[in-house]
Amino acid sequence: MDAIQVEELVRKVLAELNSQDLEPDSGSVLVGVSARHVHVTASHFAALFGEDADLARFKPLNGGQYASACQVALVSPSMKCIENVRILGPFRKETQVEISRSDARALKVDPPVRPSGVLDGTPGITLAGPHGSVTLTKGLIISNRHIHIPPSFANRLGLEENDFVECMMEGERKTVFCGVQIRVDPSFAPEMHIDTDDANSAGIIGKARAVILGKGADGHGARTHCGHCGCHKKSG
Ligand SMILES: [Zn+2]
């Protein structure tokens, strides 16, 4: 058993422990901070790293995803650049680049806040790898705040896929985040995902937890409505 397999096993056990009803009425979830990253199609990966390249595993993530050992540079139309942006696996049907608002300022681009996979009308950007580059016509987003939960957890809190909730961040600077999308799948361990800007604003360093307060009272509670991104589709 190699180090990656051990880590996957540990994560699986932790996910099971996390799913148990240790706190039956608690809507508390772990917070994971997502740094800027890229999801790629197999053909874009081949263009960036070569036909024989492998999207090698670096670290397992929630829901069967993993951080790969491969990194690219983001190059904006105004030739601003961010290097060493990690690619997540496995391959996707569409290439998607997730950055923070701070990254967007540095790159002089203006992507919208979107759920993962909702890419219509988003701007593109150029990816540069060791073998070649790919210029996307769309796919650059600021990922929305979202929480991955398994069905048992969702049922317990009366939540469904694509509900929007408010969350109290238990950070150094306690903060309530609104418009947090609920994503439900049996493969998910309960975990909230926010970007580095949100994490920094709430003073989150290392492990943190968030408490789901309930569906938003500001119009973000309805399952088919998202005032933050205009989207009501199921995300990928
Ligand atoms: Zn996520």
What is the element layout, followed by pairings?
Elements: H1 3-19, E1 28-34, E2 37-39, H2 42-49, E3 57-60, E4 66-75, E5 81-89, E6 96-98, H3 101-107, E7 113-114, E8 126-128, E9 133-135, E10 140-143, E11 146-149, H4 151-157, E12 164-169, E13 175-184, E14 191-195, H5 196-201, E15 208-215
Parallel strand pairs: 1-14, 2-5, 6-10, 7-10, 11-13
Antiparallel strand pairs: 1-15, 2-6, 3-4, 4-5, 4-8, 8-9, 11-14, 12-13, 12-15
The protein binds zinc ion.
Largest sheet: 9 strands, mixed
Helix proportion range: 10-25%
Count of discrete alpha- or pi-helical segments spanning 4 or more residues: 5
Unreliable stretches (pLDDT < 50, length at least 5) are 20-24, 218-236
The H/E string reads HEEHEEEEHEEEEEHEEEHE
**Global morphology:** globular
Distance between the termini: 31 Å
Which class of secondary structure composition applies to the elements? Answer: alpha/beta
Radius of gyration: 18 Å
Mean pLDDT: 86
Q: Tally of extended strands? A: 15
Query: How much β-strand is present in the residues?
Result: 25-35%
Bound chemical compounds: zinc ion
